[in-house]
């Protein structure tokens, strides 16, 4: 059966195909898993120079208070996320989580304060459900728009700033998690200094009709290679970043996932706006008292990758199972296998020796602090 | 005698011993290999048994034993440097040598023209 006709296409689909992208179905879209350079080169090039990623499948949503007062939109968003949005300054972005009543995670997202509205980026696979959920919960207070009329690309790597500066000189003034409007090649864009690779870089929202022109300009630069979903996954894994659906989902809480840093003091017990988000009772309790299991990084001793689904045991016979791997693969920059997974609290301390079940054998792995590579954000 | 399987392996058969590897087409589809696990010398497999494992950055795949036989030699160069399989899949990137249980079994495999037709 040929299901490809039902797949959606991003505004950069024709460009991705013309660049030789090997297209695969992902979250309902026909997306490039790799280009001719291959996953390994694309990954290493991103860490050494700059990679350009089409992430237009993600959902871009604007949230605008009906009252015209952006603080009303901030307060509305705070009923959905355990994050300080009221205190988020204009021109700044924060990582956030939609939680559920059990303290689980419906999705992870970025929220930016654009002055007269908030700009939200959610995962592709969740975007329709997220949009319906936001409509239901805050649609009475806010006008919400899902922007299928915009492309989204990420330019990541140590040369990203120099590449983007050729189109827009002011980019050098931006710090990590700053968000600005700018014109790139006459296209009205929104640029944030952020990404999903652990490298310095930018995420650029572009009107769909001009997206290919802007991307071709970026790709004209000798330091820029197009990078597919394969390297996107290995880059984020080395950076210790969660993939929604693998490492976090409705059955994992922010505390179990080690994402406490995303919950500012003002939303915690004793804070000025403590609680008031779904699952607050569970999450605030875990912040005080800890969670029974934790997401941890894992390094394997050998060369064999340890992948999602592998069970984790305290003994080489695999009798005492203490957890499961949720993401794993080969880290090209680490030059070895890297993984993350959930383990019982007793096995979560760095340097704990565990054994991962791979094809009937139990291979030694060590609990390791993440990221596996040093991040290079420009703070 | 050069033969192929529908599972994208090649066999170069000389005096009842087949040198086995994966085809250029398979190596391209798998992408950059980062790990190869080979069988032990002396191990016997039936046709279709899991003889080896290859892993790319993204995924693991099995390499099936193409015919009944016994492993008589393995190419440790590819476990030390899996990228050899990508750079020279039908040469230096061979996997193992298999002493065929029945040399006549090879007649059932694809010849080069039939394999080329299969992968288009």
TrEMBL record, chain B:
InterPro entries cross-referenced by the UniProt entry: 2-oxoA_DH_lipoyl-BS, Biotin_lipoyl, GCV_H, GCV_H/Fam206, GCV_H_sub, Single_hybrid_motif
Keyword vocabulary terms for this entry: Lipoyl
Any Gene Ontology biological process: glycine decarboxylation via glycine cleavage system
Coiled-coil parts of chain: none
CDD domains for the chain: GCS_H
GO CC annotation terms, alphabetical: cytoplasm; glycine cleavage complex
Cofactor(s) annotated in UniProt: (R)-lipoate
Transmembrane segments: none
Modified residues (N6-lipoyllysine): 58
Co-factor remark: Binds 1 lipoyl cofactor covalently.
Assigned protein family: Belongs to the GcvH family.
PANTHER family: GLYCINE CLEAVAGE SYSTEM H PROTEIN, GLYCINE CLEAVAGE SYSTEM H PROTEIN-RELATED
Function: The glycine cleavage system catalyzes the degradation of glycine. The H protein shuttles the methylamine group of glycine from the P protein to the T protein.
Quaternary assembly: The glycine cleavage system is composed of four proteins: P, T, L and H.
Protein known as: Glycine cleavage system H protein
Organism: Shinella sumterensis
